[in-house]
Amino acid sequence: MKIKSAIMGSLSILACGICWAATTAAQANAGADAGAWLHVSKSITIDAPADKVWNAVKDFDALNTWHPAVDKDEIVVGKNNRVGAERLLTLKGGGTIRERLLRFNRAKRSFAYEIVEGVLPVSDYRSRLVVSSAGDSAAKVTWSGRFKRKNVGANPADNENDKTAVDTISGIYQGGLDNLKKMLEGK
């Protein structure tokens, strides 16, 4: 009888341990399903003074003047370059993106914004654009962002996974920066 009680007690302890491990694993997987934070940062050096480059990129309602993928950029809430302003971007290939200005600093030649809603395969997106001096007649533009993929489920389709989100944002940043360089350097 003592042996049977000892075996039953051991089995109960083992069962509790298995349940605890399964619960812990499920909780860890649930956290992973929420999607990891992804980061993209692109920089380019432009042969033009930093103030000239800043003047080309600073207006929240003028992304369409230098980014080749944006057809139209209009302020729909608030005032241009004021924190809280929202812009609606109409893309040349179709679709729209609504963004909100979070910070604007003329002295530091920088601004930050977030996506409110849109067609990109990302969520919780926040971005920052900074123009810094790289000498008397050159500037460095850095465009960086932090986000999650839009589909934060455990098994997103290939066009909804982390790679797609990072590749999409990388392409947007690089396309804009390359075009800005071309415009300002006249090449």
List keywords for this structure.
alpha+beta, 7-stranded antiparallel beta sheet, globular
- Percent of residues in β-strands: 25-35%
> Helix tally?
3
Largest β-sheet summary: 7 strands, antiparallel
| Domains, number | 2
Helix/strand order, N-terminal first: HEHEEEEEEH
CATH superfamily of the largest domain: START domain
Q: Briefly, what is this?
A:
The protein is 34% helix and 35% strand. The chain starts with a helix and ends with a helix. The protein has 187 residues and is of the alpha+beta class.
What does it look like?
This protein is an alpha+beta fold. The chain folds into two domains: 33 residues; 150 residues, START domain (Alpha-D-Glucose-1,6-Bisphosphate, Chain A, domain 4). The chain contains three helices and seven strands; from the N terminus they run H-E-H-E-E-E-E-E-E-H. It has a seven-stranded antiparallel β-sheet. The longest helix is centred in the first third of the chain and has 32 residues.
Which helices and strands, and how do they pair?
Layout: H1 2-33, E1 38-46, H2 50-57, E2 70-77, E3 86-91, E4 96-105, E5 110-118, E6 122-133, E7 139-149, H3 162-185
Antiparallel strand pairs: 1-7, 2-3, 3-4, 4-5, 5-6, 6-7
